[in-house]
Amino acid sequence: MVTPAKRFQGWVEALSEAWKDRLRGWMASWFMGGFERLFDLFEPDLRAETTVSLNRLKEIPNLPDDFRAILDKATGEPKAVQFLVILPYLAALMMGFAMGSAAPASRWGSYMIDKFIHSYRLDPGMIITAWRRDPATYEKYFDDLKDQGWDPDRIEALKFATLFYPAPADLIRWQAREVFEPEMIERYGLDSEFEAIEKEPFYKAGMTDEQILNYWRAHWEHASWMQVVEMLHRGLMTEAEVWDWFRVVEIPPFWRQLLIDTAYTWPTRVDVRRWWDMRTIDETELRRLYSGMGYRGINLDNYVLWTKV
Q: What is d(CA 178, CA 182) in angstroms, rounded to the nearest whole number?
């Protein structure tokens, strides 16, 4: 059985729980209302001071839409608490613009100082290129490398490392064009007229005499296949020399004997008919000779029949 004391205790606890929520809400509304009224006393001046700058920011071309939305809210008479929430975004935005503006100013200051103390130094690539093109004039700029911490040994290593060196494709081509074979060089005269060329432009590109000579040996144009065939027919070249020519112009081995076999003239149809009339060839040879002219099938049969009749 519930005693009067227990009932009174339960009533007090229920009353306390009900008023707890009411008091919490009342205290929160009282605090926020007071805070807004307090901030509203200062906020108009703060907004007025920032509105001009914010409107100028809104005029920036290509300003992102999300930035523009923040600026619109900041200049659109928001409540104090709204303005307070937006304020960190505005601060970050203003800081970004301020830092962006500082960079050009910093560069301008550096340029002005450099006009007096001349601190700029050429990079190694520019120095080595200028020196190769005009050593007498640009030798002094190796001091720029010394100012950057280069010792004499490293400068010499730079000169060596930046000498011209042919690409792999050129090296393969040189092998193919007999650049490294003394016998072929002598036979075809690949060194001929080398002394007459002007080498100074090649030196400016970082090339040594050896590399210049290699390119010279590989530059020659050799006789065409039709010219070689004509020389072979006239006895100006032997088949052995044609085989050497194959190597010079890099004809793969698969084709070499086939080209030799097709280099010689095939008999004409008139020749073949005369030979048949003289019975110096039989029908098997007759068919072979006509086949060599391109006749096949029924055309070959008809032509053989016509020749025999």
A: 8
